[in-house]
Specification:
single chain, alpha/beta, 15-stranded parallel β-sheet, 14 helices, 24% helix, 29% strand
Amino acid sequence: MRFLAPRALAPLAVAVLLAVPVPGLAADPPAPPPAIEPDDPIFARAAAALRLEGPARLGIQADDLALFGGDRFRLPLFDALAHDVRRAPTYVAAFRDQALAAATSPGDAASFAFGRVGVSVRRTLSGDPLADLAAKASAPEALGAALVALGADAAAREKAARVPPEVARPCALVLLAAARFRDWRERALAALTADERARLEAATLALARDGGVAERDWAFLEDVAARVDLGALAAGTEDLARAAERAARDLAAAAQPGAAPFELEVATPLGLVRVDGTRKATAHAIQGDCLLLVDLGGDDTYPAVGGTVASILIDVAGDDRYDASAAGVGGIAAGRLGASIVVDVAGKDSYRAGSFGLGAGCFGAGILCDLAGDDVYEGDRHVQGAGLFGAGVLLDAAGNDRYRAFTQAQGYGFTLGCGLLVDREGDDVYVADDATIRHPAPQTAEHNVSFAQGAAFGRRADLSDGRSLAGGAGLLFDGAGDDRYSCGVFGQGCGYWYGVGILADAGGADEYAGVWYVQGSAAHFAVGVLHDGAGADRYRATMNASQGCGHDLSVGLLYDGAGDDRYEAPSLSLGAGSANGLGVLLDRAGADRYVIAGGPGLGGASAGASAGLRRHLKTIGLFLDLGKAKDRDVYEGKTATERGAGPGKEWTQKGTAETPPGERGAGIDEK
């Protein structure tokens, strides 16, 4: 059952929610134009210009990749996009629409996120997985019974009896789902000994904090990742998330103005259970694990809230402040070896974390769902949709929101992890801070390494112990609104080491600013896609390898569906392949301006290798402008002149006797 946006709730809940302005929820965002299909004739024309055997060769071939090794945790999503780039526009658009539809449903989002890392669990496929729990929760004194079943003392029944039935029922449902999640979690970790669990606890703490895992622990993590049952974690997480969204809906309907105040606080072995029905501004103080925290109103403040096994926080109304920065690691919607879910129904809220939070999962799941209001999200690393061997999800349904982090954030995926950030509508600002240098990039110490805004990363160990780990899926999906994105090095639809990074923005006049390996770029056996559905957009990258660049057996794609756009590009950009990579720029419609600083681009390739196998493998750069806006597109820069690029023209990269035979570049500005 999806927790619908506030306009679709029961009338009483609508009255409660609309006490706070909810901009942009009057209608669904406009649909962007359909993406180009894989069988579009332009791909056959492009393949001919590149002297390929056919359009199916527009990809990094599986047999070529296999010559350089592989990875046991490589995602099916990687294979689908890397081997045939023609699929990417339609596949990514379908993922975007599915994710945007799940922006108000933590349960749907959990299923989607785990599905992107090859864990296919759909608990609602043949009915309601919570039907039996809902029936139990509706029984008299169900809340007290659920508390006692979780290990609370007998006095819990008397305390629970003072909770109004319309509040007790959804709380009981969540507690019953938490007990079920405990069983799923035990099944997921059943193959591990007690000593291995303790070691995993320590290793994941280091990984979540800063990635500083001891060298000897990487082999351990690789072994454990193959034995932990992620399917069981996914099933338990989806049930718990659906219980939380259903409870939030019912609690919003129950939060009637003028109702008698009440409070409940009970300790259980899984953590504290607290229900605040005072509707006053409350500064919640939590010591230790918190299993369930419900607040029915008021401008509240929350510190770090979490649990060893499961933690659920539901806030119904008010302008709230969540601040887990003092915790250092974890805090708000941070699921490490368990699940942590936060649903905030209404209000202008602020969220802060240090490392690992605001929708972060590591061998577990963290889900943060904010349904209304102009919100602010701030953190350092592994925040705002970050998944490492699990799922990290941030959902924002409405409002003009501000996201700020430093690195590995805003839709970031590590091995077997999906980091998912979904913002349904509003004029949003996404910042991967590049002004304060905390994480200097290997490419240029004057900029941070971001790995943010749809970015995926894997452990590259061919220079150390050889125990490489494929990257995960880093996904950022934004619906309607004029949005701004900025980052340093690696971001905005970027993949590294078998990872898949995707940024897809459905519509609006958007601005993208980055430095190196940004805006649909990938390096070292990876896939990076930036997909903008519509709008007059501006793309600006300043240093190298961006805007549809694939380097070292990688695929990079920048796709723009419609609008009069401006591209400001460095070298190796606007459809550029490097070192047996494939880079594609595809602008489907509009009167566009392309400004390139120099070097290979606009359908350019630079193989680099002068001998050996690499000399013969394909390196492809492809530029396609399909707007049929003859004499309206503008090309500026030395590269454009050298290519002979212009409105209504077709060009190919000219080689010499020394040019590797696999180096191919072409551009088409469609008449």
